[in-house]
Each structure stands twice: as structure tokens, then as C-alpha cells.
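Slide 14.
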Amino acid sequence: MLVFLIFIFLSLLFPVLVLEAGRGDCQPITCRKHGPIIQFPFRHKYLHPEYCGYPGFDVYCNENKNTVLALPFSVDFIVKKINYVSQEVHLYDPGKCLLKKLPHLNLSASPFDYPEYYLSDYNLFNCTASTRDLDNLITCLSDSSNKFYAIDSATSMDSLSSISCTKIHELSSVPRNIVHRNDLHLNWLEPACGGCEAQGKKCSFKNYTTGHQIQCINKPNTKKQGILAKKNSYVVITNTQ
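Slide 15: predicted structure.
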């Protein structure tokens, strides 16, 4: 009977010990000095345990010490800025050809979405080099043999019927100015931690082992700073006061 009671006591105690130890593992970090802070709901996929971040918010540090957001279907972008209050992340393509990646991007499989304002539909066309110049030439995809264009779907296709152009992809509900830019703004609704961050507090899971319920708690009154190295990726532990 005594052994059974000891077993029950340890069974109840062990998860508490795991929770208390786990909280220290979720220290906010950056890939480089002045880089975007990686904290809940984001987590460093190699340095943070899974309970430190919300599903779909995995990032890592590349060889250039940039913060990389890994989106579904192997579409990666560099993170320029994370606004935890407005719940927005600013991204850019290091290859400087955003429209090359967009056809492979499926945000429905991620927690992110485009801001709802100024969205448009585009058709991507591959035209022969002899084609007269049209609007919205995608220079990073075009070469001496082919020219690629992003044409607003509301535009009449009559002008393309008499020239050698092939539609290769449709982009639905993307930012209107995305054709001329190399950066991308995404936001997220869940987890809803913006109000908590605005109060100077931080979000975390209520239970580090089950469920996705979150809580808003005070930030620890500690000061820690240093460098961690793992998998050739260097990260800075941020000041948490």
C-alpha cells in the first residue's frame, strides 16, 4: 500500500517538475544582434522544445544568421520583423523573386494569412520574347527566350489572344502590390496574444503537455544575455526584463 501511494505521489509530481523545468527552456532568442525576437507563439525548431511555440510557427537560423520561417510545402522566407502586438510578420525572399515562390505557397495549411485589404487575383503568363511589352513584367523569371507577366484577372484577355502567351498559374487573393515587391506581410489570428503583449506581458501554453489553451502571464524579472551555438546556428538570448 505504501509503495502504491508513493507511486501516485510521484506520478502527480513529475508533470509539475516537467512544467517548471520547461518554462526556462522557452527563453526568447534572436539569430543575430538586433534580429527579430523569437518567442511564443514562434519557436526555434532546433533549440526550443515543441511546447515553446504554437503549431505552425517554427523558425530557424540559417548560415547567414537570418531568421527563416518554414511554411508548408518547403516554402521558406527570411523574417524581417515580427510585431507581436498587431500579430504580423514581415517576410522577404532572399532570392529576390517572390513571384517564383508564390505559386507553391498554400497559406490554408498554415496559421498565417494575407491582410484582408487590397487583395487581387492574378494570372501568370509565359510569353515568347518577341511579344510586345505588357504591364507587370516579372523580370526575375524572364530571360532572352521567354517573358513572364502577372496580369490582373480583371483585365481583358483579348490583348493576349493574338500573341504567343500561355497561362501557367493563377494567384488568388494575393496583395495587390505583390507584383512589384519582394516582401510579404502576413498576419495570424490564433493564438490571440496581441492584447497580452500590449500589456507588456507574455503568452504561453497553460499546459505544456496537452491542448492549445494559452495564458497571459507576467514576464520574469531576470536579466540574461549570451550566445548559444547549435547546428552551426548562433542565437542570442535576449534580455527578458
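Speaker note: The two ends are 48 Å apart (CA to CA).
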